[in-house]
Amino acid sequence: MERAPHGARRPGSNTTRQAVSEQQQISIEKELRKSYLEYSLSVIIGRAIPDVRDGLKPVHRRIMFAQHELGNAYNRPHKKSARIVGDVIGKYHPHGDSAVYDAIVRMAQEFSMRDPLVDGQGNFGSIDGDAAAAMRYTEVRMSRLAGEFIADIEKETVDFRPNYDNTLLEPVVLPTRVPNLLLNGSTGIAVGMATNIPPHNLGELCNALLHLLDDDACTIDDLMDHVKGPDFPTGGFVYAGQGLVDAYTTGRGTVKVRGKVEIEERKKGFQAIVIREIPYGLNKSSLVEKIAALVNERRIDGVADLRDESDRKGIRVVIDLKRGTIPDIVVNALYKYTPLESSYGINMLAVVDNRPQLLDLKSALSHFLEHRREIIIRRTRYDLRKAEARAHILEGLRIALDNIDEVVALIRASATPQEAKDRLMQRFGLSEAQSQAILDMRLQRLTNLEHEKLLDEYRELLKKIEYFRSILENIEVLRQVMREEFTEIRDTYATKRRTEVLMDELEGIAIEDLIPDDDVVITLSRRGYIKRTTLDNYQQQRRGGKGIAGLHTSDDDFVQEFLTTTNHQYLLLFTNHGKMHQLKVHQVAEGSRTAKGVHIANLLPLEKDEWVTTVLSVREFAEDRFFLFVTKRGMVKRSSASLYARARKGGLIAVGLRDDDELIMVREIHNDDHVVLTTGGGMAIRFACPDVRPMGRSATGVKGVALSGDDRVVACAVLPGDDTSTEIMSISSNGYGKRTRIELYRLQSRGGKGVKNFRVTPKTGDVIGAMPVRDDEALVLLTSTNKIIRMSVDEVRSVGRATMGVMLVRLDEGAIVVGFDRVDEREVVEESAPAQSSEQKTAPEGGDAGTEGTAG
User: Fold this and answer.
1) Where is this region: Disordered (predicted)?
2) 751 and 606 inside one domain
3) What digits encode the pLDDT tens for the residues 156-213?
4) What pTM does this model have?
5) Is 137 a catalytic residue?
6) Which position among 36, 74, 137, 164 bears the catalytic label?
């Protein structure tokens, strides 16, 4: 058994039991809670949340006080930033040098502080996020406004406390004459709470303080008549809506802020958008990168070039637009998709009496008023004490001068200065301070001129003493002093508002309000190039004309879809796979009459072997409205339009298809309508809409017509069942066409072979389509050589069913008719001259297009 070392006590001895009994039992939970609360309070009070009185966090207060101690005022030469940082961390702020220097940099940045408190010399970073130069390269001094934060600090206006090592004293708060909490705002994240106070305009704040000083019972609404809203150093717009009212009345709220843009006119009809101001706190370079990414992703269309031309004179981001682009639409997209419009959350949290408190506008201003009132009272007491002390000395000197011969004799008769002092006190009833002042007085003060100066100073001091006492005794005099101070600060330092306050809500621009609901033409080529062009670009011509060029395509491409519509309608694009994609008509890129357009793949996520086969435009998706789907193999389906209102990003299934079938067209249909299906072989069938019951989106449908051999459905005409005035216009590929009265097509049940519609011969070519027409309408035809011709419907002869009609257009060699549509003839200006060829006459360039029907 081991023995205990010499002198050691075994466990269980009296000494060990006594030590154990002296230990205290504590709760770990309570100790952690206590320690964490102390830590939280330290972060809130000593680091992250500003004081309501001077609006400063400790690091900013110590930076300003250290510069004051160094005499680094606005009218003195700059000092190295490293020297300021060294003094701050060595004397008052025991933290890292980078934290202090970062605070100095921010106080010097004009885009961060509404009114900078540091006058910097050198590179202090940029609004693009560039870092400041190292502290050894930059120089700083207090700004002129910062001097108002330190003014009167030597007059015992604020309390001082020991610094971190008890070797120096630092101010608890600065005796600022500036309402800095609201002037420059503050942002900070503490433990479990945060503050985000926006900057404001100094002139407006001073006016509000003057109003509150005159009427302490005023409401927040009264103060908001003076404080219009935040005034950010980067300018822009801010919406003074309910969010701002909530922020000023409760301390919390959210406001919308926007950058400011201008529209510049360039040569040859081009335009450019110039961003001049951006929201507060936004990195300009990241904004430019975001805009560039959106342009590349085609979420912002119509942009030709993007560049940053900003310099020291200000921000200038230029967005050049393509010809014909509506600038307001691009501006709307910038506000919608980029941080050029953002929300600013206001949380007016500050330290009040060493406790964090949420402030409204009135309480924030009231606390500052109370701070100034206390500062002025303490300053006045200091001045009064100094004035009374000086007046006391001057009173003794006046007595000495009145009795100068006796005083001189008394002093000459004294053996020591102390004896002279005692004898003066005894002879004239002077105090020790007065006697010492007489002994220290220079002989030149005995002249008559000096005597008068002394008396003038004494009389002036008496007036000051009376004034100081009136400030302390009369509240109205005190208010007048405060009023003069705020007026002086406003007149000296206030600048014009930079952020424009909008009283109307900042809403996205309604694109439909910017684009007139004009008739337009949508053209889609077989290879998928789509464009929008104004209908006015296609002049009406007589039957038999050669037409004008309508679309520039390659030799192996031709126009597939051609429809008239209006800019505000929805464009439904149905593919051969039975899918539907949805766009607004105005979203289709604008192009001139002969432009090729943009590929549909830039607008829709199509598969490799998928293409758009038919296009339909509608204005609304009502539940009692129906779409009729027709496939190449003669299948038909009726579905409610409401099923197609919400298209997914990748499209949605519009109709179920068999493996050997394709969707060829879609028409809007009503319950009393009749349907006429036309085949390429010249057959047609007419049946009533109720023969096709309503089905779901993914249904395949039912048989509409029985096809013979390799015949296929090429067109579907939908017309009211009681309509007898409408005629069916049928057109063949070789340019032949005819009108046939609708009563010649007998009503049948769906699923039959139908009746003869068109006498198909090698001369006429197969039927490419058919549609109902009226005499007051015009017809627009397109050829495979991309020629367009317009004519009146009444120029085409009305004949029977089993005929081939008349020639409608003279085709170039090898050309065929590939599409046609109808428009209202009343909207077309009649051409009185004979038709001219496209080589002889050109039409003006136009904008974008859209339509309601398709053919072929």
Assistant:
1) 1-23, 827-856
2) yes
3) 999 999 999 999 999 999 999 999 999 999 998 887 788 999 999 999 999 999 999 9
4) 0.67
5) yes
6) 137
